[in-house]
Amino acid sequence: MSVQTTMSPEGWTPPACAALSRSLQEPLCGTAPRVRGWLLIEQPGPWGRDRLRQSRLDPVLGDALAARCADAGVRPVLIRTRERRDVAAGRHVYLVRPGRADGWAERLLVRDDRELLDLDLDLSPGVGERLDPTESLFLVCTHGKKDACCASFGRPVVTGLGHRDGRVWESTHVGGDRFAATMVCLPSGIYYGRVTAEAAEHIVAEHDHGRVVLEHYRGRCTDDPVLQFAEHTVRVERSLLGLDDVIPLSATPRPDGDTDVLVRHPAGTDLVRVRTTSAEPRLTACSAGVVDSPDRFEAAPPPVRRSGS
């Protein structure tokens, strides 16, 4: 596939990755990145491309924190409100272990940035104030220096949602620039893509009532992409929207290259045979000019082998 470009006085400019993804009708399901844990750090803008080293944090501290997070398998994310709150008296920090019944989020107030290096990134609970299960956090990526699509599509979503008592935050990169605007719900770990301001209102309301919105649903960061796709397939086949109605249990590779995924739901378990292929090369992040061949999933017929009513 040839990627069309437009010319500018400075040279060529690639097409916006989000617009290209939409034009190709790229499926959203099965695209949430795996994330073991989250470290959310309040840092008013501006944010540079390298979130920990170019966003007005001490770059030496940023280097050390990046190394610690990489070793622990924790994703560091900078967050801010539209009002750009003054953090001189301390910055809000959240530690999050994503999950279904076992997910949790804790809030701390860090008054000295050096305390960030002392945080328990093994994510043992009890470090901060535990958020009530009804207080889900909603991150919307607006990291324009990482990818212009995130700022263009993300900012209207944040503006439309408002602060909501500290539950809605702008964030740095969370994964999937081409699906902007992207939203992450924590601690459930649910990812949404191609979110508009109107859709965001619906997503937040449904999430608070314990339901997913399949039109924008990418999957959960706790599951591998093939499991995310199988979960989505069963949800569609059985019209199940409850947050924890559908749980992928296991994935078994087959000799023919497909994967059998066992999925639990309220009526029993189903088997989904997932076929993985590579899509044609395409632009997946416009600011970096990244061209990749993302995985493409499809269910081998029949889509679901039912073992429950």
Q: What does this molecule look like?
A:
With 309 residues, the protein is α+β, with helices and mostly antiparallel strands. Helix content is 20%, strand content 30%. The protein is built from 5 helices and 19 strands. The strands form 4 sheets. A 10-stranded mixed β-sheet has the order 7-6-5-3-4-9-8-10-11-12. Strands 13, 14, 15, 18 and 19 form a 5-stranded antiparallel β-sheet that branches. It has a two-stranded antiparallel sheet with strand order 1-2. Strand 3, helix 2 (59-72) and strand 4 form a beta-alpha-beta unit. Helix 3 (148-161) packs across helix 4. It is globular and about 60 Å long. Mean pLDDT is 91; it is low at 1-12.
List the topology elements.
Blueprint: E1 6-8, E2 11-13, H1 17-23, E3 37-42, H2 59-72, E4 74-80, E5 91-97, E6 104-110, E7 129-130, E8 137-141, H3 148-161, E9 168-171, E10 183-186, E11 190-192, H4 197-208, E12 217-220, H5 225-238, E13 247-253, E14 259-265, E15 268-278, E16 282-285, E17 290-292, E18 295-299, E19 305-306
Parallel strand pairs: 3-4, 8-9
Antiparallel strand pairs: 1-2, 3-5, 4-9, 5-6, 6-7, 8-10, 10-11, 11-12, 13-14, 14-15, 15-18, 15-19, 16-17
Organism: Rhodococcus opacus (Nocardia opaca)
InterPro entries: Aim32/Apd1-like, Thioredoxin-like_sf
Protein name: Sucrase ferredoxin
